Amino acid sequence: MRQIQHFVDGQALAGTSGRFADVFNPNTGEVQAQVALASAAELDAAVQVAARAQIGWAATNPQRRARVMFEFKRLVEARMDELAAILSSEHGKVIADSKGDIQRGLEVIEFACGIPHILKGEYTEGAGPGIDVYSMRQPLGVCAGITPFNFPGMIPMWMFGISIAVGNSFILKPSERDPTLPVRLGELLMEAGAPAGVLNVVHGDKVAVDAILHHPLIRAVSFVGSSDIASYVYSVGAANGKRVQAMGGAKNHGIILPDADLDQAVKDLIGAAYGSAGERCMALPVVVPVGARTADALREKVLAEIDTLKVGISTDPAAQYGPVVTAAHKQKIETYIQMGVDEGAELVVDGRGFSLQGYEKGFFVGPSLFDQVKPTMKTYQEEIFGPVLQIVRAETFEEALSLPSEHPYGNGVAIFTRNGRAAREFASRVNVGMVGINVPIPVPVAYHTFGGWKRSAFGDTNQHGLEGVKFYTKVKTITARWPEGAVEDSAFVIPTMK
């Protein structure tokens, strides 16, 4: 049985805790490897390595750090086929989707290549008589990232790319469900020229998470996962004096106004709802057509598109999506489908019991569609995180606007319309962090920032972009004067800029 080890100080490191987790092949349902789960002592040892490495790395000029990022980007691109195959084999998403996962992470690495310019501080000459004031951004020290199973390439690169570029060292605790790709990324960063110990990959479960949250040398923690755990990470990390950005769950809505290009909107919805088997925090699992006529037409077009969907193994180039990540997650999704039936929603398409010939033990869930879903239903209020699309009908624009605005989650929302004024008003008023206008998955480009509102995010700083740079750095402001002659009595009072 293949053993997946930690990656510390530039080399593979066998686990010593005696605890392991199974890593499955979602296509077959078989255990393909075991990953070591770190103890608090193992996590501490990695932090000590990172702390030592960070001193020299922070002293490396930003241009040289940027060169490492350029080379890392080149290496990842050159090995894209290999890395995507690794990702798909443990996650289950199709190869094209795995390449997209990695590419979106590389876009943040691309942004980090510009770190010499981004880190330039501010300067005011002559702020007072003979006084200049300037500021600089400096790294925090050792930072950590706790990442989810659904984007094992993109989200780690979102975190460590910027953190390392600004001069920190990093502890990455990836999901134990698909841990091999993060280790390969660590190896490639060393190959790109980063010193050993700058990026360390430590596998684990709650034991490792708690060790991160309580470790005195870890200055900042970035997290992506469920809202309950995000809340826990934020509260415990903040209580221990750390900066924390904790991204939680989502229930993203797609609003369909009567004037929308319905054919295009439906094609966008199908990809956003069922792509990657719905295992995306920016998936679009709720569609809100405005008016009965729009809803009826939408339903028929969605049904026709579902009929064309192909579910297959992750290496099938014709498949739109593959299996979900584990048997437990498959069972959770199917439990939610039954819950929707019990709550009185109309199950138009039932994806339960889907079986793929030759892969009967794989973790497959067929596409499901509900209509007549009500906002009071638990299946609407909670995140299903699977290939399940719910239709919630609205009579008016105001009703459609209120649904995502009043929902406990506030990650993303999309509106489909030809009316610029309606789109502008919706974008301005909706109580959600990221908005798409005729864009079904409104994930911002890497030089903007990613972050939701309400129970979708805890903390006040977003991922990547300039917000990411701010999160992983601290500002130092210097007020300088070079006086001539004797020190005046005014040196004993607070200086003013008269």
Summarize this structure as a short list of keywords or feature phrases.
six-stranded mixed sheet; Aldehyde Dehydrogenase, Chain A, domain 2; 2 domains; 498 residues; Aldehyde Dehydrogenase, Chain A, domain 1; 23 strands; alpha/beta; 16 helices
Count up the helices: 16
Shape descriptor reads globular
Strand order of the largest sheet: 15-16-17-14-13-19-20
Let me know the number of strands.
Answer: 23
Estimate what percentage of residues fall within beta strands.
15-25%
The CATH architecture of the largest domain comes to: 3-Layer(aba) Sandwich
Residues in helices, as a percent range: 25-40%
The Rg value, from CA coordinates, equals: 25 Å
Q: What would you give as the CATH superfamily of the largest domain?
A: Aldehyde Dehydrogenase, Chain A, domain 1
From the N-terminal CA to the C-terminal CA, the straight-line distance is 74 Å
CATH topology of the largest domain: Aldehyde Dehydrogenase, Chain A, domain 1
The unreliable regions are none
Overall structural class, as computed from helix and strand content, comes to: alpha/beta
Largest sheet: 7 strands, mixed
Whole-number tally of structural domains = 2
Task: Give the averaged pLDDT, no decimals.
Answer: 96
CATH class of the largest domain: Alpha Beta
How would you characterize this protein structure?
39% of the residues lie in helices and 21% in strands. The chain has helices at 40-59, 62-78, 80-91, 95-112, 115-118, 154-165, 180-191, 206-214, 227-239, 262-274, 292-306, 327-343, 378-381, 397-406, 420-429, 465-471; strands at residues 2-4, 6-8, 11-13, 20-25, 30-36, 123-128, 131-139, 142-146, 169-173, 199-201, 218-224, 243-247, 253-256, 286-289, 346-349, 368-371, 388-391, 409-410, 412-416, 434-437, 453-454, 457-458, 473-481. The model has no long low-confidence stretch (mean pLDDT 96). Helix 1 (40-59) crosses helix 8 (206-214) and helix 2 runs antiparallel to helix 4. It has two domains: 2-248 and 456-477, Aldehyde Dehydrogenase, Chain A, domain 1; 253-437, Aldehyde Dehydrogenase, Chain A, domain 2 (3-Layer(aba) Sandwich), CATH 3.40.309.
